Amino acid sequence: MMSIATDLPQEAFRARHTSTTQAILQWLHDSAAGERRLDYALSALEWCRRLPKLADMLPATVWQRLLNHLLHTAADAETASVEGSLLAADPLVHQLLAGELPMTLASFFPKIKACRRLLPQARRALTAGLADLLDDEGLLHADRFDQLRPLLACWTRCRSLGKRWKRGCWSAETDTQYRRFVRNALRFVRRDGSFALSPEPPDPDDAATLAEAVEMVGEESDRAVAAIVLSGRKDKTKRRKRAGMELPAPAIHSEWAAAAVLQPDWSRSSPRLTVLYPGASCRVELNCGKDVLWSGDWRFDVRVDGMTALPAGEWSNTCWMSDEDVDYMELERRAG
């Protein structure tokens, strides 16, 4: 009986290893000729993050094959970055494969020369990504707003890995952009923890990622804002501490990003209007406390002498004003 009892866990252990090996071999087979899309990028990063533990679970040949595949993937992403095609076509996949993947390989296996050599590539790709997607104030372009959550997660993981390296994961100027991006992300958090204009339900991981980012790079005023936006708990001590603190302006607008947030203060009960107006589209969300009054495309109908006047061209901002009394914005789009 004793031998049976001790053999069972060992059999289960071997079965799990065999299952993992088969899963990796199948993934490598499926990935050989597949397109480098988002689902592939996420699975590649997942296997990459598991590589250290897999070293004790896999046959050496399978582990090396997986590592080589990930190295080739990073190299291919670098080629696409140089050509400029991947960043323009799918910036999120670009940041995952050309930035985070080589940063992870270099950080996890610094003693492996082929991995360590990826560090400059990762820095270049991440720096280029933030420069392309964010304005000087760290506001994400409205065309890419739907990728705010995964980009926040990607860049926060890279920023954390970068602490292992003397020069970090990107340039000093880029780090300033990232810090401002984190602050701007707080502006878009709904009361339930989800992000404005997102159809996705609240995900605790999003709040945890944002809280980690604020703790890692945020100033004291950013941490105070996060305490309001992310927790919602009634803490009189924190409220008294924040009373004399100057918080960042709650409203923001960027003509380059085609995005704006209009809100009088940071309180969770404050009304907030989020506007994205890239090109010919305009998306608007109005929040009042815990209620989302409307969210989505703004559609309208204009008639002149009984005839429908169809708009032409793109939206443009003609006026923006924000002070302690009012946030005010005008958008214009010419009729055809």
Commentary on this structure:
It is a single chain. By secondary structure, the protein is α+β, with helices and mostly antiparallel strands. It has a domain at 14-133. Helix content is 53%, strand content 13%. The chain has twelve helices and nine strands. It has helices spanning 2-31, 38-54, 60-83, 85-89, 91-108, 113-116, 119-133, 148-162, 172-187, 204-217, 220-231, 236-243; strands at 252-254, 259-262, 271-276, 283-288, 291-297, 303-304, 307-308, 316-322, 327-332. Strands 1-2-3-4-5 form a five-stranded antiparallel sheet, with no helix packed on it. A two-stranded antiparallel ribbon has the order 6-7. β6 (303-304) and β7 (307-308) form a beta hairpin. It starts with a helix and ends with a strand. Mean pLDDT is 89; it is low at 1-8 and 233-237.
Task: Give the helices and strands, then pairings.
Blueprint: H1 2-31, H2 38-54, H3 60-83, H4 85-89, H5 91-108, H6 113-116, H7 119-133, H8 148-162, H9 172-187, H10 204-217, H11 220-231, H12 236-243, E1 252-254, E2 259-262, E3 271-276, E4 283-288, E5 291-297, E6 303-304, E7 307-308, E8 316-322, E9 327-332
Antiparallel strand pairs: 1-2, 2-3, 3-4, 4-5, 6-7, 8-9
Helix pairs in contact: 2-3, 2-5, 3-5, 5-7, 5-8, 8-10, 9-10, 10-11
